[in-house]
Amino acid sequence: MAKNPRLMPESPALYRGEVLRAARLTPSMQRVTVTGPQFAAFPYRGYDHWFRLFLRLPHQRGLELPELSGRRWWDPYFAMPEEIRPHCANYTVAGFRPGTGELDIDFVVHSGPDGEPEGAAAIWACAVRPGDPVALYDQGLIFDRPDDASEVHLVADESGLPAVAGILRSLPAHTRGRALVEVPLDADRRDLEAPAGMEIVWVVRDDAHAVPGEAALAALRRRTTVAPTGC
């Protein structure tokens, strides 16, 4: 059996809280830290633990949430009137501190021609204030490392960087392999906690018109093949 099977909770829980603080992590990444009494019980499992984020849109006066129960979250969500339905997007836990009930969320920030952030979640993350309401619907893990894997190879663009960072932090100390991460700018590179045997390769896109992920894919094709039991 794999050590870290893909696991969605049998009864996913909704965690309500509020924004504690927000800060620019790198030129293309905004970090928002949320907190609340319920977050102390968040069952963080490391790796690429992810959730569905519910947030208030600019035209909405409050954060109205669907009555969620079980795995079919979308039925009550899409049954809500559009004018009060919150924005929903998938995000990875970028950091979690159970002692203080704080959870970090990293948002990729792409800017339009006028320099303003684009996309509902990025706009929210860049304009959010302490005390603004938020809710997370736990979805568990996706990453699954087979027991017999001799190497681990991870490839992502900036949208997958929080997941790669979480996986690297959680891998056993003896793990060997490579993480290939594409970012928009050289200044978006940052230190990542990882086993000594994991090589971290940064691919800087440095082209506002390039399709995210293409540079990472090209770099992957230039690399040597993985071991027969790599993943």
Blueprint (SSEs and pairs):
Layout lengths: L13 E13 L2 E7 L14 E6 L18 H5 L8 E11 L4 E7 L1 E2 L5 E2 L1 H8 L5 E8 L11 E5 L4 H10 L5 E8 L13 E8 L9 H9 L9
Parallel strand pairs: 9-10, 10-11
Antiparallel strand pairs: 1-2, 1-8, 2-5, 3-4, 3-8, 4-5, 6-7
Please explain how this structure is put together:
By secondary structure, the chain is an alpha+beta fold. The chain has 2 domains: 14-140, Elongation Factor Tu (Ef-tu), domain 3 (Beta Barrel); 152-222, 3-Layer(aba) Sandwich (Rossmann fold). It has helices at 74-78, 120-127, 161-170, 214-222; strands at 14-26, 29-35, 50-55, 87-97, 102-108, 110-111, 117-118, 133-140, 152-156, 176-183, 197-204. Mean pLDDT is 90; it is low at 1-5.
CATH C-level class of the largest domain is Mainly Beta
Average pLDDT reading: 90
- Helix count, DSSP H or I runs of 4 or more residues: 4
Beta-strand content bin: 25-35%
The helix/strand order is EEEHEEEEHEEHEEH
Question: Kindly, what is the distance between the CA atoms of the first and last residues, rounded to a whole number of angstroms?
Answer: 15 Å
Which labels suit this protein?
Elongation Factor Tu (Ef-tu), domain 3, 3-stranded parallel beta sheet, 231 residues, 4 helices, Rossmann fold, alpha+beta, globular, single chain
